[in-house]
Amino acid sequence: MEKQIIVEGKTSTEAIEKGLKQLKCRKEDVDIKILENEDKRSFYSILDPRVVKVEMTLKNDVKVANVVKEKKIRPVSEKDIKKCKENIENFLNDFIKEIKEIEYEINQEKDTLQVTILGNNSKSLIGYRGETINALQNLLSAIGNKNVENRVRILIDIGGYKEKREETLKQLARKLERTIKRNGRKIILEPMTSYERKIIHTELQDSDYVTTYSIGEEPRRKIVVEKKIK
Fold first, then answer.
1. How far is CA 122 from CA 14, 99, 112, 133, 158, in A?
2. 3-state secondary structure of 56
3. What is the pLDDT of residue 168?
């Protein structure tokens, strides 16, 4: 994988966007150096096509991350699934004793366990903008994968919240696209989970008008939506 590239564009923004696509990374993953600034052009070059050159270098921590991604992922065995499910059941059986009128179901979908919580008091576990359900999913993931050889993916849903939230985020993405198409201004969203950010990125990945990328560190990582340079 290339670690340093030089890209060209009519503006620095266009050049940077091209470089990010070529490196397949985010803006915060690279060091950027403008080699030829679009604002510093001589009188004699006015009639020449405008070209801005940008040098982009992957940061050291990104190199490490790429090496980790290239490691072969071991398949999850039925033994792993069984142990993970048993861990979750033991925890939830004790958990529901403290909160009455809730029950749960655990269904296996390939190498993923889908945990669905139902009942009259289940919606109290969603929290403001899903904060509680996200925390509960992290907790179940940690408990479920205790003493499990290969990590099992765990998804949790309460009262159809995930489906409703996904639809809300898709509608938000399209609304942002229309807004930026109209006024051209960059928009930075509030912090979201990786699951929620992926929905926004996926919904707008084929947009003709906007591009998206993430900034910041977990758990305060945010999505930036801005006008696409053509």
1. 48, 9, 22, 10, 6
2. strand
3. 95
Structural domain includes residue 191:
yes
pLDDT value at residue 63: 47
Q: What is the DSSP letter of 49?
A: P
Instruction: Convert the pLDDT of each residue in 181-229 to its tens digit.
Output: 999 999 999 998 888 999 999 999 999 999 999 888 887 889 999 998 7
Which is nearest to 228 in space by CA: 21, 4, 38? 21
Same domain for 152 and 200?
Answer: no
Residues forming beta bridges with residue 12, ordered by sequence position: none
Pairing outcome for strands 52-58 and 30-34? antiparallel
Domain count, the chain: 3
Q: Would you say the C-alpha torsion 161, 155, 173, 218 has a positive or negative sign?
A: positive
Buried b (16+ CB within 10 A) or exposed e, 20-38: beebebeeebbeeeeeeeb
pTM given for the model: 0.59
Share of the chain above pLDDT 90, in %: 45
Q: How far apart are CA 55 and CA 92, in angstroms?
A: 53
Domain end among 159, 178, 206: 159
- Phi, psi angle pair for 65, to nearest 5°: -60, -40
Final residue of a domain: which of 133, 159, 185?
159
pLDDT tens digits for 139-165? 999 999 999 999 999 999 998 898 999
**Are 155 and 94 in the same domain?**
yes
| Closest of 73, 31, 32, 67 to residue 52, by C-alpha | 32
